[in-house]
Amino acid sequence: MHLAPHVQPSGSPRVRCAVALRNATLALAAVAGCARGNSGLASDAAPFPDGPAHQVHDGPTRDAPPRPDAATDAAPPCAISAGYTPPLTGIDDIVNYPASQQTAPGAMLGSDNAAISWDPQHLYVTVQSSAFTDAYEPLHIYVEAGSALEAATPSSGKEYSGLTAALPFTPTHLIAARQVDDSGSGPYDGVWLPGSSWSTRATPLAPGTDVLLSSDHTQLSVIVPWAALGGCPTTVRLDVHVVHAVPANEWKDLIPSTHTPWQAPGGGYYEIDLTGSSAIASWTLH
Fold first, then answer.
1. HEC states along 192-205?
2. Number of domains comprising the chain
3. Residue 78 lies in a domain
4. Quick one: 125 and 189 in the same domain?
5. pTM reported for the whole predicted model
6. Full residue range of the structural domain in which residue 111 is found
């Protein structure tokens, strides 16, 4: 007697269980295959970063050195003393200096006078002379500026009207001004550098602002920033004269009065400690 095999209906619980188990097995196999197929990518290249943990930040890292504070960044203050700031206007400027800043120049043309002062920003020089009634007789102020000057070495100044002054030191700058700034060949008022025969006007001085002339053309004042004279010098050597260019009277209004621009090595000069008193009596006369 043969018994027919027992066939479960397709919708029976046992059949449904078997199908589900087979499908789950196939799914696990597919996942394992994908993992094996992608193993090269995982070993050869890092996955592209995303999420907050991988974001690049613009700010400093934890190990970055701290930024110096403002006090460390700032340049040290200039040591030039407060001095005295004369209120210069071009109207009788000499009287705007205290007596301690005034000095009688040598080789005067008449009732001449001069005054020199400074503050931490500027050097101020005023000379009273009838020489300035001539449009082209310049005031020349030779300055050797620095923080530690070496021994003075005689040199020559800027040629003007066929004349070249002898100087008892080697200047770093020439401050030049006259009644008429531009005679047609270019402006003259300014700070000149030695270079090639004093041919470089490094800093212009503007008439009416930096160069002040009285209405009667007898007083000439210059206001020169220390920035044009090396920045913040603490010591200067100084000689001043007017190029008169008259035979036997080639140079006038000499400061100091012992300065001899017509004869080498140039005579006397002032050496000034800019960190001290601006009173002329405190300067060293060489």
1. EECCCCCCEEEEEC
2. 2
3. no
4. yes
5. 0.75
6. 93-285
* pLDDT tens, N- to C-terminus, the chain (286 residues): 444 444 444 444 444 444 444 554 444 444 444 444 444 444 444 444 444 444 444 444 445 555 555 445 666 789 999 999 999 999 999 999 999 999 999 999 999 999 999 999 999 999 999 999 999 999 999 999 999 899 999 999 999 999 999 999 999 999 999 999 999 999 999 999 999 899 999 999 999 999 999 999 999 999 999 999 999 999 999 999 999 999 999 999 999 999 999 999 999 999 999 999 999 999 999 9
Distance CA 168, CA 51 (A): 76
The one-letter amino acid code at 2 reads: H
How far apart CA 173 and CA 194 sit, in angstroms, is 7
CB under 8 Å to 82, separation ≥6 — which residues? 119, 120
Q: What are phi and psi of 174, to 5 degrees?
A: -125, 120
**Burial readout 185-217 (b: 16 or more C-beta within 10 A, e: otherwise):** eeebbbbbbbeeebeebebebebeebbbbbeee
Residue written as token pair 């209120």 = 87
* Residue 98 structure tokens: 């205290």
